[in-house]
């Protein structure tokens, strides 16, 4: 059983800080929401690492929004719903496609510089998009440019206080209302922060897997915290594996953007054969889950650990101009995109599920909001359309702030809350070993291919790690492992319950999509059974 709180504490004995809005995380969702809220609220932004370290920083492809005259929100809506495989919230998608363009204008106003062609915003096309609507910055460094611009704005705001290298341990709740958070500072001291509203912008869960495009910070902390607090968690079985991560000895699983295929790159197996025509009519521009599984199929058939991505038919000038970061990174390992085929393989990339929210970003717990990858707004359904994630963060970040402005001040005085499980210490080395073992179990048992036997065995293996919650955790790595274990079990239990294949979730024992029974979401809540909820995708 996963306990309500991660550590023991006496709330009355803790130092207390009070603010209007608590923002947890410093990716695009956290930065943008904090900036918007700071217009008339006092904001405390808390991040467990440095301000600039987040998934957004590594986002290459771009941000999707209807800009071109030959494009329309209706086209963007259709593409998003198609990729989402019947589980998108149509109202959430409507919000995204109609409000996204203004969100992009807001990013530009806040200092983001997107690439231009002849004085006009440069637009590219990515997999499963019917039109060119992807804005990018510095070729393939869009996320870094957005984080750079927004971080500079955050530093200028008198109303924003920033706590770097602070770890949020848990939400403090009272009768279904989030009243604040329990935080540990770099020195190991714990603080109670009370706020009128708490916004989870803590990112995704890529580090649950041995191979991921995500940075070290992506350990699903916010989702785990929200689950322990009693919030509803939705669609955790849908985890997207990016088809093309660099797979080369000595190199990290560096993301090779979808945009490379959007600009004409083709996939070849180890024999040099182009193969996507066997799997989908859109070839290399098929939805990510289809491309990823096709790659794995070719790897198994040819007994290889990778396939090749070939863009050598394009000009050197185009490659260097459009993909400078990818080009330079490949060159570090002796790979020249202009003349070499690049070895790639799928890696864990993005979580569609997360904390269930409404159209205003509010969770099932009053005054607790979620934005960005930690949230489940309903935009992505069973499979995120490329470059919709940055748009989602902007659109729903603004909506969250508008909702917070409607809230009355929190009238709550600190009560007596003592948590004492008599926990015992655990050796640090054990945590390092357990983390690696967890990542291997997730790759083997809850990866691109799943079935009842694998999932059942994986749940059994991970459940043996549950005694960690009886330990006196005190270091960041220990908190992260507890959160990773929590979310790994959420993923596996949801994947076991969904007896079909849909979007990013593929069951080899149930290989077909079953709309008659499974066009629905799976909700998980602490101390409750999994609940099925019908999709409103139309």
UniProtKB/TrEMBL annotation:
This is L-aspartate oxidase. Pathway: Cofactor biosynthesis; NAD(+) biosynthesis; iminoaspartate from L-aspartate (oxidase route): step 1/1. Its EC number is 1.4.3.16. Its cofactor is FAD. One of its GO terms (molecular function) is L-aspartate oxidase activity. Residues 20-390 form the FAD-dependent oxidoreductase 2 FAD-binding domain. One of its GO terms (biological process) is 'de novo' NAD+ biosynthetic process from L-aspartate. Gene3D superfamilies: FAD/NAD(P)-binding domain, Fumarate reductase/succinate dehydrogenase flavoprotein-like, C-terminal domain, Succinate dehydrogenase/fumarate reductase flavoprotein, catalytic domain. The lineage of its organism: Bacteria, Bacillati, Bacillota, Bacilli, Bacillales. Belongs to the FAD-dependent oxidoreductase 2 family. NadB subfamily. Pfam families: FAD_binding_2 (PF00890), Succ_DH_flav_C (PF02910). Catalyzes the oxidation of L-aspartate to iminoaspartate. The active site is at 288 (proton acceptor). It is found in: Cytoplasm. NCBIfam families: nadB, PRK07512.1. It catalyses: L-aspartate + O2 = iminosuccinate + H2O2. Keywords: FAD, Flavoprotein, Oxidoreductase, Pyridine nucleotide biosynthesis. It is an enzyme of class 1 (oxidoreductase). One of its GO terms (cellular component) is cytoplasm.
């Amino acid at each position: 059983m996963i306990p309500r709180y991660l550590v023991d504490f006496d709330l009355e004995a803790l130092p207390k800080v009070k603010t209007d809005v608590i923002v947890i995380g410093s990716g695009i969702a956290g930065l943008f929401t904090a900036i918007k809220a700071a217009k008339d609220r006092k904001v405390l932004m808390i991040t467990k690492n440095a301000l600039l370290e987040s998934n957004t920083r590594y986002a290459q492809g771009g941000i999707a929004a209807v800009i071109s005259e030959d494009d329309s929100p209706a086209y963007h809506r259709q593409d998003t719903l198609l990729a989402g495989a019947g589980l998108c919230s149509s109202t959430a998608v409507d919000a995204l496609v109609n409000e996204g363009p203004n969100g992009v204008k807001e990013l530009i106003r806040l200092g983001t510089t997107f690439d231009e062609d002849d004085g006009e915003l440069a637009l590219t096309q990515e997999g499963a998009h019917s039109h060119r609507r992807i804005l990018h910055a510095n070729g393939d460094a869009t996320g870094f440019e957005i984080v750079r611009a927004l971080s500079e704005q955050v530093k200028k705001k008198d109303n924003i206080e920033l706590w770097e290298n602070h770890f949020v341990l848990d939400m403090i709740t009272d009768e279904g209302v989030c009243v604040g958070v329990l935080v540990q500072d770099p020195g190991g001291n714990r603080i109670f922060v009370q706020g009128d509203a708490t916004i989870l912008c803590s990112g995704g869960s890529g580090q649950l897997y041995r191979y991921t495009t995500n940075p070290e910070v992506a350990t699903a902390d916010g989702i785990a915290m929200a689950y322990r607090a009693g919030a509803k968690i939705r669609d955790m079985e849908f985890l997207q594996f990016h088809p093309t991560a660099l797979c080369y000895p000595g190199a990290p699983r560096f993301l090779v953007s979808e945009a490379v295929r959007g600009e004409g790159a083709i996939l070849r197996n180890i024999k040099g054969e182009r193969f996507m025509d066997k799997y989908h009519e859109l070839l290399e521009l098929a939805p990510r889950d289809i491309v990823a599984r096709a790659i794995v199929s070719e790897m198994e058939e040819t007994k290889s650990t990778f396939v090749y991505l070939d863009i050598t038919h394009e000009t050197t000038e185009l490659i260097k101009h459009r993909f400078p970061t990818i080009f330079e990174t490949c060159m570090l390992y002796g790979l020249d995109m202009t003349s070499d085929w690049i070895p790639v393989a799928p890696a864990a990339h993005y979580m569609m599920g997360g904390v269930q929210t409404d159209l205003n970003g509010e969770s099932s717990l009053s005054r607790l909001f979620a934005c960005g990858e930690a949230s489940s707004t309903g935009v992505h359904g069973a499979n995120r359309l490329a470059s919709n994630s940055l748009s989602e963060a902007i659109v729903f970040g603004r909506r969250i702030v508008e909702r917070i402005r409607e809230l009355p001040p929190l009238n709550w005085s600190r009560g007596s809350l003592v948590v004492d499980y008599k926990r015992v210490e655990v050796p640090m080395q054990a945590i390092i070993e357990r983390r690696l073992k967890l990542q291997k179990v997730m790759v083997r048992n809850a990866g691109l291919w799943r079935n009842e036997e694998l999932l059942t065995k994986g749940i059994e293996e991970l459940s043996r790690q549950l005694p960690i919650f009886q330990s006196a955790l005190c270091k960041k790595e220990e908190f992260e492992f507890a959160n990773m274990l929590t979310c790994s079990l959420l993923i596996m239990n949801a994947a076991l319950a969904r007896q079909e294949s849909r979007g990013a979730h593929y069951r080899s024992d149930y290989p077909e999509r079953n709309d008659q029974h499974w066009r629905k979401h799976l909700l998980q809540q602490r101390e409750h059974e999994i609940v099925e909820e019908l999709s409103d995708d139309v």
